[in-house]
Structure formats: C-alpha cells, structure tokens
Design goal:
The protein is α/β, with parallel strands linked by helices and 318 residues long. The protein contains 10 helices and 13 strands. The protein has a 9-stranded mixed beta sheet, with helices on both faces. Strands 3-2-6-7 form a 4-stranded mixed beta sheet.
Length: 318
C-alpha cells in the first residue's frame, strides 16, 4: 500500500500553562509576582507533529483528547497548522501540565496525572489503519501508546520514541525503549548514559540510540560505536527550552527518512533543537525545511562542555 503519511505521531497531545518565574528553583514564599502566565496547546506529541510538519513531512497525529476547553485548544492548533488529527475520546479530560520557565530558559514541568486511566487505549483498528499508510511512527511514552507498539510492528512501519528524562531503571519505559528502531533519551537523569544506551541497543531492536545532553550536544550509538554530536550555537538568545528535545527528534527524523548519514541527521537535530531554545514555547513555532538546511550548511558546532561520556569516545566525527 502506498504511504500517504510520512510520520504518524501517537500520543502526547495536551495543554501546558507556561509560568515564567524569576528563578529556578522558585524560592519558598507566600506569593511571587511573575512576568507572564499563559495557557496554550502543545505537549510532546504536538511539538513533534508541528516540527516534522514544518520540515515538509506529511504528518498525522493520533491521541486521546477530552471534550473540554483544553481539547478545543489542541484541535484548534492542529487546524491552524494544517495537521490532520485523529482524536479518540478521553473521558478523564485532555492532558495538561504546568511548566515553570526560568530566565535562562530552563524549565520544571508539573503533569496532572488525573487526566488518564488504566483502561485508556487507542483503538487497534484505528492504529492499524493509519500505520498501514505511514512510513514511520513516532510514539510518545503515554500509557495508551504502549499497547499500540505491537500493532505498529505488525504493520511494518519503523518506530521511534523519546524516553525523555528516563533514569534508566524505571520499568515503565522499557516497552518503548525495547520496541523502537530509533530511541531518543535525555542524559538529565542518567547516572551512566553510555551504559543505558548500550543496554537499550542490546535488549531491544534499536538500530540507533541518541542521547541528548543540552549544551553539550548529543551522543549517537550506532553499530556499537559511540559518537559525539556537537551542539550548534543558537541563532539568538536562549529563552525557553520547552520543546527543544522534540525539535531535535524531528530534525533527526527528517534526515533519517531522507536516507542521510546518521551524523548529518544528528546535525539537523542539533540545528532544530538550538532554534527551539530561541523561541518562546507559547508561540509553538518550529524551524522550516529551507532554514534548517541553510543553517546546517553553515553550522560551526560549538565547543561542548566536558561530559562524563567523553572519556569513552575515541574521537569526534563531524
């Protein structure tokens, strides 16, 4: 069957309330005056959908959404950006979170766990029908998506996932880590990033594992070789790190689906992630294809801060 969708994004639709705070952590006090509080649609699946769509890939988003105002915001975002959305009713309501963002762009996210139920599922027939006309599926680590992974495998699409700030031990993430062809993970909570990356590759089916490390860049594990992907200097001041990891994944996927060499995919990810850090999350703007390619062509990777992984790397390749 001919592919009609380049990237099918599962899960991760929701609404964030962005609170810009004077500093993180927020000092204890009865109250604080903050520069801004704004609620907008856009969680990890939304951000990946927006980012790959902006890069010219045919995109479709599937998730559970409530019949409520936050759900209306999610639906409106997709309509405004021209991204098809298949929604499954979510009786508990649309997912929501509060993100505290400091002056340097760092963030602390607070997720409302009341917006999900153990019985939540994406309809198998819907997942299969969409997967059968898709080239690739990017799966958010939300509860219903875990049950969709075998269906995606049966449909024959390649699968990617982002484990975000996994600690390398929580068993919840293992189903996603071990059933995806491409695995993204942040080094933030990993005591030994290289060990975790190699364990993912050994126990699962991933052909590549990518660990993002903020200003240090990222690390790519491919065919047993660990390679550093240098960070790219942001084109403007860093104001917000919300969505930077999603942008990196989208940039990497853009290159991967085009058949580019893995390190070029990593460069695309670094450029897209750097751009995301210069954009307020309330605007949900992603870098476009032409701008990504132009910046990648002239990119001069920043000298990375020293990382514990550096001792294990035999040499950087750019």
């Amino acid at each position: 069957m001919t592919a009609e969708i380049d990237v099918l994004v599962l899960g991760g639709a929701g609404v964030d309330t962005i609170v810009r705070v004077p500093e993180l952590p927020v000092p204890f006090a009865d109250s604080h005056m903050v520069p801004a509080i704004e609620t907008r649609a856009g969680q990890t699946g939304d951000f990946v959908s927006l980012a790959v769509h902006a890069l010219g890939l045919r995109t479709h988003h599937l998730d559970m959404i409530g019949d409520d105002h936050p759900g209306d915001l999610v639906r409106q975002l997709h309509r405004d950006r021209g991204i098809p959305l298949t929604e499954v009713p979510q009786p508990a309501g649309t997912k929501r979170a509060v993100n505290l963002v400091g002056p340097d762009g760092r963030r602390l996210s607070l997720y409302d766990t009341s917006r999900s139920r153990e019985t939540d599922r994406l309809p198998p027939a819907t997942v299969t029908a969409l997967a059968e006309v898709s080239r690739h599926a990017h799966v958010s680590i939300t509860h219903p998506c875990a049950f969709a992974l075998p269906l995606l495998r049966a449909a024959g699409v390649t699968v990617s996932t982002d484990l975000h700030n996994w600690d390398g031990a929580n068993p919840y993430h293992e189903a996603f880590a071990h059933q995806a062809d491409l695995v993204f993970v942040s080094t933030t909570a990993l005591a030994d990033p290289e060990r975790t990356m190699r364990r993912i590759a050994e126990r699962g089916r991933a052909s590549a594992v990518i660990a993002t490390a903020g200003a240090e860049g990222a690390y790519l594990l491919l065919d047993g070789e660990l390679t550093h992907i240098p960070a790219v200097p942001p084109p403007a001041p860093v104001v917000d790190s919300n969505g930077a990891g999603d942008a990196f994944a989208a940039g990497f996927l853009f290159g991967w689906l085009a058949g580019e060499p893995p390190l070029r995919c990593g460069l695309y990810g670094a450029v897209a992630g750097a751009h995301a850090c210069t954009v307020l999350a309330t605007s949900t703007d992603a870098i476009g294809r032409d701008e990504l390619l132009a910046r990648a062509a002239r990119a001069r990777p920043a000298a990375p801060a020293r990382s514990p992984l550096d001792d294990d790397i035999q040499g950087e390749r750019v």
